[in-house]
Amino acid sequence: MRRGTKVAVGIGAAVVVVGGAAAIWGPGLYADWANSAAAEEPTLEQSAVPLPDAEAAAGTWTVGDGSFAGYRVDEVLNGEDVTVTGRTEEVTGSVTVADGSITDAAIEVDIASVATDEAPRDAYFRDTAMQVGEFPTATFELTEPAPIEEGATAVELTGDLTIHGVTQTATVEAEVAGDATSGDPVQVIGSVPITFADFGVEAPSLGFVTVEDEGSIEFSLQLQPGQ
Questions:
Q1: Residues above pLDDT 70, as percent of the chain
Q2: How far is CA 42 from the centre of its chain?
Q3: pTM of the predicted structure, to 2 decimals
């Protein structure tokens, strides 16, 4: 992934409002528990499959069931490192393949439904950090055709990522698994580094917890053919 790619799908400031739990358990035990609650990074459900000739994949592919998007961020809680993940399956959109390239892609994520293992953190994320009443969704729209190279296992996508009312250019190298000629869904995954300030979001520090200024977005899309 390119370091200059600073984008987020619903990441904002993921604050831990759990000082009481940390005080009761002790920061070390709480950090162990919190890290175990973090979701695994997106992985391909099967081995990456070489992309076919672009004409074989021509048409419109729609985001289907089993897709998700979210974030991964590190926090420091009373001196202990904690990894937090938030995810939602409320992802919609489509991808169009024509003339040997991906010519169009538009993906939308419902920010209000992004959730972690802690309701107080999620409330802060929605209402204070992301202001979902004003900015309810995040979107990605392709701005440059993405050539499909036969035999590759990844494709580079460049477009506009809009989060919290701010649009930034994003370039993502997405891994692909699934046979585009079989009529079955194709899985596309990726992870991209982000910086909160690029989207007008300040990572908070509440004394007992500090959220890092940078994190990453993660996604896994199940693309259905011909819909």
A1: 80
A2: 9
A3: 0.80
